[in-house]
Design brief:
By secondary structure, the chain is mainly β. It has 3 helices and 9 strands.
Length: 149
């Protein structure tokens, strides 16, 4: 089964949120559209991620779609943790409606409020209603073991 799962292609995303004024970010690869009306998306965060419990306190999030120029930023959020370090210290971002960080290096982002949370084995699935979005020039990248060894 793992061999087949590894053939599923997925992008590289940095999911960000703000909780009690503190900003958090995680690199993830499991993101999907769920509905057009209302506009809904799904993100899945592994329970093995640093600070994954913190995300369960969130009410909002942004999905930052990463392109070639964002690989190092995606690596940064894949290795750092909001509880242990200020992982936004040297990261440029803007905020949309929810206050969740939208990264300068992303090629697009959606700003969401969480409408449902589902415990799903070794992951937690969050469904968010899209409140705002931004699109920039550039193409998204696919997750690979070469980029994230």
């Amino acid at each position: 089964m793992i061999d087949v799962f590894s053939k599923f292609k997925s992008g590289v995303y940095v999911v960000t949120t703000v909780i009690d004024g503190l900003k958090y970010g995680w690199t993830v690869s499991w993101v999907s559209k769920v509905s057009f009306k209302p506009p809904l998306v799904m993100i899945s965060i592994g329970k093995n991620k640093k600070d994954h419990e913190k995300f369960e306190e969130a009410e909002v999030f942004a999905v930052n779609v990463m392109g070639e120029n964002g690989i190092e930023v995606a690596r940064h959020f894949g290795l750092s943790s909001g509880e242990n370090v200020n992982n936004f210290k040297e990261i440029d971002f803007i905020e949309l409606k929810t206050g969740s960080p939208v990264l300068k290096e992303c090629v697009g982002a959606i700003d969401c409020k969480i409408v449902k949370t589902v415990d799903a084995g070794d992951h937690v699935v969050f469904i968010g209603e899209v409140l705002d979005s931004v699109s920039k020039d550039g193409e998204s990248i696919l997750f690979s073991n070469e980029i994230f060894p």
